Amino acid sequence: MQEFDHIQSLWQSHSVEVKISSDEMLAQAKKEVSSISNRSILNIAGMVTSFVAVGSLCLFINFQSWTTYAGIMIVLLAIAALTIILIQGHRLISRNDFTTHPNEFLVSLKQYQLSRFSLYNKMYWIYAVALTLGVGLYLIEVVTYMELWAQILIVLFSFLWMIFCSTLVRKAVIKKDRERIALLIEKFERLGSQFKTQS
C-alpha cells in the first residue's frame, strides 16, 4: 500500500505544462466562435421557418373554432418572442471582432453566457407553457374529428414529447452549451493574459 501511495504522490507531483502558442489558441477560438455563430444562425432560421409554417395554417385551412385560431396565435407569439431573444444573443456574439477587440469580445461572450443561462432557465419554461397552451387550444378542434383512441394517442404523445424535451434534451443541450461557452471564455482569458505578458 505504501508503494502505491508513493507512486501516486510521484505521479501527482509530476505535472507536464502544455504550452500552446497564442496563434494556435486564436485559431481554435476563431473556429469555436464561428461554430457558435453558425449554430445561432441555424436556430434563428429554424424559428423563422417554424413561424412561417405555423402562420400558414391560418391561410390555407379554414378552421371553425376560435380556440384553434387562439392556439395558433399563442404559438406564433411564443415563437416570435424566442426568435427575438435568439437574435439578441446572436448580436452579442457577433458584435465585436475578437481579433481586434479581444477584451470587448470577452465581455460580450460573458453577456452571451448569461443570456443563454436566462434562456434555458426562465424563458424556456414560459415558452414551453405557451406552446402547450397553444397546441392544446389548437388540438381542441382538430381531435374532435378523430376517433377516441386517436385522440388519446395524440394527447399522450404530445404530453410525453414535452416531458422528453423538457428533461433529457434540455439538460443535454444546457450542459453542452455551458461547457462550450465556458471553454471559449477560458481561452480568451488565457489569450488576454498571454498578450499582456508579451507586451
> Low-confidence runs (pLDDT<50, min 5 residues)?
14-18
Count of alpha and pi helical runs: 5
Mean pLDDT: 78
What is the β-strand count?
Answer: 0
Largest sheet: none
Indicate the structural class. mainly alpha
Radius of gyration: 24 Å
End-to-end C-alpha gap: 50 Å
Q: How does this structure look, described?
A:
About 3% of the residues have low confidence. This protein has one domain. 87% of the residues lie in helices and 0% in strands. By secondary structure, the chain is mainly alpha-helical. It has five helices and no strands. It is elongated, with a radius of gyration of 24 Å. Keywords: Membrane, Transmembrane, Transmembrane helix.
Task: Give the helix/strand layout.
Blueprint (H helix, E strand, L loop, with lengths): L1 H12 L8 H39 L5 H29 L7 H42 L4 H51 L1
Question: Main attributes?
Answer:
mainly alpha, 199 residues, elongated, 0% strand, 5 helices, single chain
Task: Describe this structure in a few short sentences.
The chain crosses the membrane at residues 40-63, 69-87, 124-143, 149-169. The chain has helices at 2-13, 22-60, 66-94, 102-143, 148-198. It contains 5 helices and no strands.
